[in-house]
């Protein structure tokens, strides 16, 4: 996945997501933004769920979230593939992105 056929991490070492909006409620919401892969930017929407808020053993308030979206890798120029002898192709166009994030409230 790190090779030039895919993410080409030597040339493009980072993926970037910049939020442009949020809608929904405190438990489930949609986070929209611009996703950059290999210097190509396209809008995406993540379905996000709150995993809860808790105070850790050090007295810090933490909030956890999980998010998920599905993209077409071809939209970002990730087109390498190989035909299979039995038919079809080796690599799916569909890529599922899952994010787990935790935030700490600053004091």
UniProtKB/TrEMBL annotation:
> What organism does the UniProt record list as the source?
Neomicrococcus lactis
Superkingdom per UniProt: Bacteria
Q: What is this protein called?
A: Polyisoprenoid-binding protein YceI
Q: Which family does it belong to?
A: Belongs to the UPF0312 family.
* Pfam families hit by this protein: YceI (PF04264)
Q: Identify the SMART domains for this entry.
A: YceI
- List residues of the Lipid/polyisoprenoid-binding YceI-like domain: 1-104
* Matching InterPro entries: Lipid/polyisoprenoid-bd_YceI, TTHA0802/YceI-like_sf
């Amino acid at each position: 996945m790190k090779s030039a056929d895919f993410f080409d991490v030597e040339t493009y070492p980072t993926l970037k997501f910049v939020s442009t909006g949020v809608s929904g409620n405190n438990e489930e919401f949609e986070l929209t933004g611009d996703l950059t892969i290999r210097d190509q930017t396209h809008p995406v929407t993540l379905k996000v769920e709150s995993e809860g808020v808790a105070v850790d053993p050090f007295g810090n308030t933490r909030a956890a979230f999980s998010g998920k979206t599905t993209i077409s890798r071809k939209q970002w120029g990730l087109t390498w593939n190989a035909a299979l002898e039995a038919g079809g192709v080796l690599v799916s166009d569909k890529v599922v992105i899952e994010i787990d994030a935790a935030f700490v409230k600053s004091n």
